[in-house]
Please model this.
Amino acid sequence: MRSVVTGGAGFIGSALVRHLVHEAGDSVLTIDALTYAGTRASLRLVEGSASHQFIHADVRDGAALDAALAQFQPDRIIHCAAETHVDRSIIGAGVFIDTNIVGSYTLFEAARRYWDGLAGAAQARFRVLHVSTDEVHGSLGPEGRFSETSGYDPSSPYAASKAAADHLARAWHRTYGLPVVIAQCSNNYGPYQFPEKLIPLTILNALHGRPIPVYGSGAQVRDWLFVEDHARALDLISAQGQPGETYAIGGGNERRNLAVVEAICDTLDRLKPAARPRRELIAFVADRPGHDARYAIDATRLQRDLGWQAATMFDQGLTQTVQWYLDNRWWWQPLLDRAAGA
Model:
């Protein structure tokens, strides 16, 4: 297939691009604005491939999107481009509204113009996959899991912006017939994740002997999904998912945040021993405003209808992730240097 990935230099997007080029055999066009969390270093493994092209463009630029789609002639668009960090959305929500809502609208309109110009089998085959999050549903209690029918109750500006984009996607399907599918995932982890997120932040702080911040008591629970499993799911949903439908993607790996941090400390102690146990670096800090207590995903529909299964259990994936950060300073050190100089 010919696939466009927006936000393809980010964490999830780059994992998807690598999967599509190396595993699925697609021709891929990456579109990315290369904001602070996007880096072409994440695409290093595909940059020399004849099956990969890159365009430096913003999803809010409709003319650039029109030109890219007309030139590349994709069979599908997988829309990963987004501002994603909850803490940043609390400090400054404007860019989240602009990128996640206005950018998604602009992308859906460009896709609609392109799709309207197709005919026959090409038009029937075309799909747009909007990559969303379980955070649009708010917080769970001690029991239950989110599914495709869960109600919307976002807590943070980030989650609200993604919820709005979900509603736009459904509206563009119902009003214009645009063949949009929505995927809602649980928390991702793995290689190439920007260092502000919990797992890479913990790895790098622990590696450098710096305090490891944990919000509140660390009792919040997340369902962790290895990013390469997520990439496989997105490939499958965008190829075989039904337009107008939503598919929930979860790893089935619920862990308290504190348990995740402790597991990282213990893994680093094993792989790269230090003078003292790294658990001693854990520092509890004031909780995040509106911090959701628990997320968990029921991925039954995706498993039943499309045959997807998460292949990576959390302990295995966490060890792989910690080892990757130990082995790939070339990737994360420039990002830390850039952040320090900002």
In short: The two ends are 39 Å apart (CA to CA).
